[in-house]
Amino acid sequence: MTVRRVFVPFFLVALLVAAWAAHAAAHPTVDVVAANWKFTPAKITIPLGEPTTLRLTSSAGVHGIASEELGIPNTTIMPGKFTEVTFTPKKAGEYLVHCSIMCGAGHDKMILTIEVQ
Q1: How many other C-beta atoms lie within 10 A of the C-beta of residue 105?
Q2: Computed from CA positions of residues 22, 87, 56, 43, in that sequence, does the dihedral angle turn out positive or negative?
């Protein structure tokens, strides 16, 4: 009995692995900066049914976000650090996400609007 070896060129394997990695990581990422009593940008638009990553940081104070409707867990946003949250919206619409950590006099007006299309 003869054993046949299948030769697959290394570059082909590398190309397939790179294509798979690019596809696996190819989802929207949005940078959001929290500051005293505002998010920048104040409104973002993301795709329905696709994973989306929010890269969160704060330029002033400790803040937070959470949205059960969108699947965003309770997340603390610290000054000078980036925190990533990935979620997949299941329903189209406009969602108002309030700062979840009491941050001062303007806390009640600190809202990130997320539109899911």
Answers
A1: 8
A2: positive
Q: Do 64 and 103 form a contact (C-beta atoms < 8 A)?
A: no
> Could you list the pLDDT tens digit for every one of the 117 residues in the chain?
665 665 545 554 454 555 555 555 578 999 999 999 999 999 999 999 999 999 999 999 999 999 999 999 999 999 999 999 999 999 999 999 999 999 999 999 999 999 999
Q: Is 108 left (phi over 0), alpha (psi -120 to 50) or beta?
A: alpha
Q: Does domain 28-116 have CATH number 1.10.287.470?
A: no
Looking at residue 112, what DSSP letter applies? E
Identify the burial level of 1 via C-beta atoms within 10 angstroms of its C-beta, where 0-12 means exposed, 13-18 middle and 19 or more buried: exposed
Write down the domain spans for the chain. 28-116
Distance in angstroms between the alpha carbons of the first and the last residue of the chain? 60
